[in-house]
Amino acid sequence: MDAKSTLEVTNSFPFPTVDPPPTDTYHDSNNISQLAAAAPRSKANGIYQNEMIKKLREVNVDANNVGWYTSANLGNFVNMNMIENQSHYQKELNERTIALVHDVSRSSQGSLSLRAFRLSPAFMLAYKENKFTVE
């Protein structure tokens, strides 16, 4: 819940994995990565997400969708998939949703590395008008 400038995240759950049909191994790994990166925008995963929230409420857990999470390595996470996912969440669900990024390499050095991000209204407008690059 968002209480006075503090967002409290109490539960999280992963999206189900989808096994694509096998082809050659190089293209398979590329396709699997693309499928995983697009998971938050998938219609089937949106339905899954709503069902999970419903089930959490049935067992009396405070359940509101506040965003999605992903992992990163040494802070490397800003790419088109991240921007498309966050834009989707802010546009379709709630402009206050966040992307929670867990940096596994920094966490392995002794302290948990979690950071939350939102896209600014100015960026959302630039994204809509395709006036930006990720480089």
Plain-language structure description:
By secondary structure, the chain is α+β, with helices and mostly antiparallel strands. Helices cover 41% and strands 15% of the residues. The chain is built from five helices and five strands, in the order ββααβαβαβα. The protein has helices at residues 25-38, 43-58, 80-93, 104-107, 121-128, and strands at residues 2-3, 6-7, 67-72, 98-103, 114-117. The protein has a three-stranded mixed β-sheet. A two-stranded antiparallel ribbon has the order 1-2. The protein is globular and about 45 Å long. The relative contact order is 0.13.
- Helix content percent band: 40-55%
Strand tally? 5
Query: Which residues form runs of ≥5 with pLDDT under 50?
Result: none
Order of helices and strands: EEHHEHEHEH
The N- to C-terminal Cα distance equals: 34 Å
Secondary-structure class: alpha+beta
Largest β-sheet summary: 3 strands, mixed
Identify the overall geometry: globular
Radius of gyration: 16 Å
Q: What is the overall number of helices?
A: 5
Q: Within the largest sheet, what's the order of strands?
A: 3-4-5
